[in-house]
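Researcher: I'm preparing a figure for a lab meeting and need a structural model of a single chain. I don't have an experimental structure, so a prediction will have to do for now. The sequence is pasted below. Please return the structure as C-alpha cells so I can convert it later.
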Amino acid sequence: MTDVLDEITPDETTNAPKAPEAQNWRQEEHDGTLTLWLDCADTGTNVISEAVLRELDTLLDEAKQARPDVLAIRSAKPGGFGAGADIEGFAGLSGEDAVTMLRQGHAVLDKLAALPFQTVAVVHGTTLGGAFELALACDHRIGVDGVKLGFPEIQLGLHPGLGGTFRLTNLIDPVEAMQMMLTGKSAHDSKAKKLGIIDALVPERHVDAAIAAAASGQLDHEGSFRASALRTRAARSLAATRMRSESEKKAPRAHFPAPFALIDLWEDHGGDSDAMQQAEIASFATLLDSTTAQNLIRVFCLRQRLKSAGKGEDGIAHVHVIGAGAMGAEIAAWAAMQGKRVTIEDVELAPLGQTISRATKIYERKHLSGIETRDALDRLMPDPDRLGRARADLIIEAGPEKPEVKEAIYSELTNEMKPGAILATNTSSLPLASLIDAAPDPAHFAGLHFFNPVSSMPLVEVVSHDLASKDTLKRLAAFTTGIDRLPAQVTDYPGFLVNRVLAPYMMEAMLMLDEGHDKVAIDRAALAFGMPMGPVTLADQVGLNICLEVGQSLRDGLDTPVADTPDWLREKVENGETGKKAGKGLYDYENEDPPKDPADDPDQQVIDRLILPMCNAAVEALRKGVAHDADTVDAAMIFGTGWAPFRGGPLHYAKVRGDVPDALRQLAEKHGARFDPDPGWDTLG
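Model: Understood. Here is the structure written out cell by cell.
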C-alpha cells in the first residue's frame, strides 16, 4: 500500500468537486481538515491571477464560518504548487490601477493570515512568486520532497508584490531572505527546510500526518533571531550597504532599479510590517511603470511565444548523438535528464566516459536527487558499437565543423537509419544547403543548433531548408520544447540567425583593437550597454580559431559585410593563442582577467560601433526571412546570447531609440560600407 501511495501524484489524491461558483479551486472536508485545492482552469500550471484571489476570498469567508480544525491549501497540478502571478494580467497596468489590484490581493492574503484556526500550505514542485506568497500567508508550510521555492520577480524588473517582502524577512534570517529576492534563486527542498521556510519536509504519503501535526501545534516555530536583531534601521543599514555594493556589480542601478528599490524598502521599513506592506505596494507599482520592467515583461512574453511554437507530440523517444565532444555530450546529458532515451557514439572511447562525468556534474548543478540522477544516467548510454543509429527516432550529428566529415557520417547513415527517423545537424557555421545532397533523406533532415553550454543556454535554432518537410520541422520544435529548451524557427542563411547577428559584435572589436583601442575599454563599454560579456572576452571564450572560421564563412555570403579580419588574429591562432581554453588569446589568462565591471562613463561611439551593426544585421535577417517576425529575432538574441534583456532585443532597442539608420550612415561615412543601413530599415514597423 505504501508503494502505491508513493506513486500517486498530487492531482490524483482527490476527486473533490469544484467549489461552488469557483473555476479555479476544489474543496473537500475530512475529519476536521478543510482542504482547498488550487486547480486553475484550462492550464497545466497554477498562476495567481485576479480570478484566483477573488474566488479564494469567498472561500475564506465560508471557511471562517465553518471553523474547521485546520485549513490546508494544496495544488491539484502535478508539476507544482504554482508558477507565480499572472504576468500578462498585470503587464498593461500602471499607476492607480496597479495599486488598486495589489491592495485587493493583499487584502485576501491578509484575510488568510488572520483566520482564527491553523492554516497550512502543502507545497510541491515549482512554488514561485505569487504562489510562494500565498504559502507564506499560511501559519505553516509543509514541503513535499523535491519542492523548490523562490521569488524570480527580480528577473522581470520587479520585486515581490503580494506580501513576500515582509513575510519572508519576518519568517527567516532577513539577510538570507533578501538574498533570495535579490538573486531570484530558488531554495530547493532541504535548503528551504534548513532556512526555516518550510516547517516539515516529507514524502507525499506522509502529508496527512504532517497536516495533523500542524493542527495540533507540533510544527509551531519561533520567529527569526536575526529578524529581531535587525529591527533597528542602523543595523539594517549596514547590511543594506553591502547588498547595494553586490547588486551594483551584477546589475547596475541605471539599468536595473528593482534590486535597489527592494533594498531601500527593507532598510526603511524592515522593522514595521504594516509600513513595509504599504511601501511594497507603492514600490511595486512604480517599478511596473519602469522601462526596464516593461521590457523584461516583454521578454517573458517572448519566451512564452517561443514555447507555444513547439507545442504537440514529437514522436521522439530515442535520441542518438554522434560526437561526444563538449556540445554532443551536453546535448546527450540534457536530453537524458529530460526523459529521453539517449545513446551517444564517438570515434574514441575516452570522450564517452567523459560524457558520463559531465552529465553527473550537470545533474548535480540542476539539483537532481540521487534517484533522479540514477534514472537520468540509466537513460544515457555510451554506444561505441553505434547500435543506436538503427533504433533512434532522432539522430543529432555533433561532429567537427568540416563538410567532408559530416558528409562521410551521412553516407554511413543512409542504410542505417530506420524509416521516418530524423537527422539533425548541430552545425553552427556550415550552410545546410551544402549538406543536403549528402543527407539520407532531405525531407527528414534539418538543423538543430544548440548553444554552449546546453544546460545553461535555453535557445535552440530549428533550421529549415527548401526540401525539409513541415512535419520534420514541427517535430523538431516539439522535441526542443519537450526537453525544456526554446525553439527559434529560422531558415538556412550564413550564421543562421544568432551567429549572423552576433558576429559583427566580435569582428568589429577585432578591428577596433587593430586601430589601437584598449581591449578593456571596449569590453567595459559593452558591459555598460548591458551585454553579458564584452566582445573581446567573448571572442576568447568562443575561441579565436572559431572567430576566424565564422568571419570567413559570413564574409562570402552576406549583403552587408562584417569587419575584415586583422592579419595578427590569424597569426595568434597559428601560434596556438586561441583564447581562454589555451590560456592565452586576446587576454593573457595567467596574468590578467577580463573586466567584469561596466564603464562608468563609456564612449558612445564605441558602443554604437559594437551594437548598431547587430541591429543592422537583425534587420537584414528579418528582410531575408531568416526569422518570420521581429519578435523571433529579439527573442533569439536574448535567449541565445543574453543580449541586454532590459533593452528588449536589438530590433526593439532600435525602434525605441529611433535614430539607428542615421547613426549607421554617420558610421559608414567614417568607417566604411559595413555600416551602410540595410534596405529593410525602410519597411521596419
